[in-house]
Amino acid sequence: MTPDDLKSIQQNAEEHMKKAIDHLEVELVKIRAGKANPQMVDGITVDYYGSQMPLNQVSNVSVMDARTLSIQPWEKNMLQPIERAIIAANIGINPQNDGNIIRLFLPPLTEERRKELVKKCHAEGEHSRVAIRNIRRDAIEHIKKLQKNGLSEDVSKDAEDNVQNLTDKFISAVDKHLASKEKEIMSV
Predict the structure, then answer these.
(1) What is the pLDDT of residue 131?
(2) What pLDDT score was predicted for residue 13?
(3) Domain extents for the chain?
(4) What span, in angstroms and rounded, lies between the C-alpha atoms of 176 and 52?
(5) CA–CA gap between residue 142 and residue 150 (Å, rounded)
(6) What does each C-alpha distance from 180 to 54, 84, 159, 173, 184 come to in angstroms?
(7) Which of 36, 63, 125, 156 has the CA that lies 20 to 30 A from 93?
(8) Regarding predicted confidence, which is higher, 138 or 28?
(9) How far is CA 32 from CA 91, 92, 129, 168, in A?
(10) What mean pLDDT value characterizes the chain?
């Protein structure tokens, strides 16, 4: 049992907490705030000659204006499968197919819809907080095991404090992400 054991426990906890924040960022991007964003369609897969392909690998997704996304398939015969995939994804937007490109018009958000989106953001934030706390619990359990195997109480207490400080830092990062997303959603 060496100080390296403690360092690796703390580094492992920090890496996992960073992954929780990265996941939160990805999830928050998917929640639309009234502005068109190509990442809104990132999770959609299209049936491309029998295999499922991400939408952005069979077409060009771009922003036409603040409320419109355009999807230009690389092959014209992909218009119908792309349109079906968007409808099946249930992202709350009806695709408009003009025979060349598909347009997604984002409706303006009502006050009620904005509040629902904020709740959804807070739910994602809570998932991240829970994940971070679970990582903290696991790290502290590892430290306690090391203490049972002969690690001094002072050293283990310091290590636990370091893990707690990491946890506080990442929880406040979650709160900052949520605050900026909420501001983005609620601004008309």
Answers:
(1) 94
(2) 92
(3) 3-30+110-186, 38-105
(4) 36
(5) 13
(6) 28, 33, 32, 11, 6
(7) 125
(8) 138
(9) 9, 10, 22, 28
(10) 86
- State the residue for tokens 């230009």: 72
Class of domain 3-30+110-186: mainly alpha
The single-letter code of the amino acid at 41 is V
| pTM of the predicted structure, to 2 decimals | 0.70
Q: Which two tokens stand for residue 182?
A: 């909420």
Q: Which fold has domain 38-105?
A: Gyrase A; domain 2 (3.30.1360)
- The C-alpha atoms of residue 167 and residue 68 are separated, in whole angstroms, by 39
- Cα 22 to the center of its chain, rounded Å: 6
Q: What whole-number distance in Å separates Cα of residue 183 and Cα of residue 78?
A: 37
Nearest Cα neighbor of 10 from 131, 164, 171, 124 is 164
Per-residue pLDDT band at 34 (split at 50, 70, 90): low
Beta strands across the sheet bearing 59-65: 59-65, 68-73, 102-105, 95-97
Task: Please report how the helices 111-148 and 3-30 are oriented relative to each other, as an axis angle in degrees rounded to 10.
Answer: 170
pLDDT confidence of residue 66: 78
